[in-house]
């Protein structure tokens, strides 16, 4: 008799366990929703690292440049962001023409 019950339980185990698992899951889900804080809409999740970084960079940009309106940008028709030659693409700030002329004038005045 016992081997027959074991074989029946083995065959019908998925049909018995699925409803049991669904009931246990539903009970746990409802308990979790009654316990959690209703003031936290996403269960108290922190904002993503990427979102925090973007907000921090935006705050730093606004503090550094004191820009009032971020929609006022220069025209794209001027193409000031495109370098004129390939040699200007990865140019160090110390080698830019504006800084080079000021540094060369300071070295000539200090040497004389």
UniProtKB/TrEMBL annotation:
Keywords: Membrane, Transmembrane, Transmembrane helix. The chain crosses the membrane at residues 12-31. The keyword Transmembrane applies. Residues 92-112 are annotated as: Disordered. It comes from the Eukaryota. InterPro entries: UPF0767 (IPR031933). Its main location: membrane. It is a single-pass membrane protein. The keyword Membrane applies. GO terms for cellular component: membrane. It is found in: Membrane. Belongs to the SMIM12 family. PANTHER family: SMALL INTEGRAL MEMBRANE PROTEIN 12 (PTHR28599:SF1). This is Small integral membrane protein 12. The lineage of its organism: Eukaryota, Metazoa, Ecdysozoa, Arthropoda, Chelicerata.
């Amino acid at each position: 008799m016992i081997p027959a019950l074991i074989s029946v339980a083995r065959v019908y185990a998925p049909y018995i366990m699925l409803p049991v698992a669904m009931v246990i899951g539903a009970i746990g889900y409802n308990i979790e929703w009654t316990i959690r804080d209703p003031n936290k809409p996403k269960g108290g999740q922190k904002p993503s690292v990427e979102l925090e970084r973007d907000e921090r960079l935006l705050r730093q940009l606004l503090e550094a440049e004191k820009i009032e309106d971020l929609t006022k940008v220069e025209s794209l028709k001027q193409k000031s962001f495109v370098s004129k030659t390939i040699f200007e693409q990865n140019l160090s700030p110390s080698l830019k023409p504006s800084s080079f002329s000021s540094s060369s004038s300071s070295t000539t005045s200090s040497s004389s």
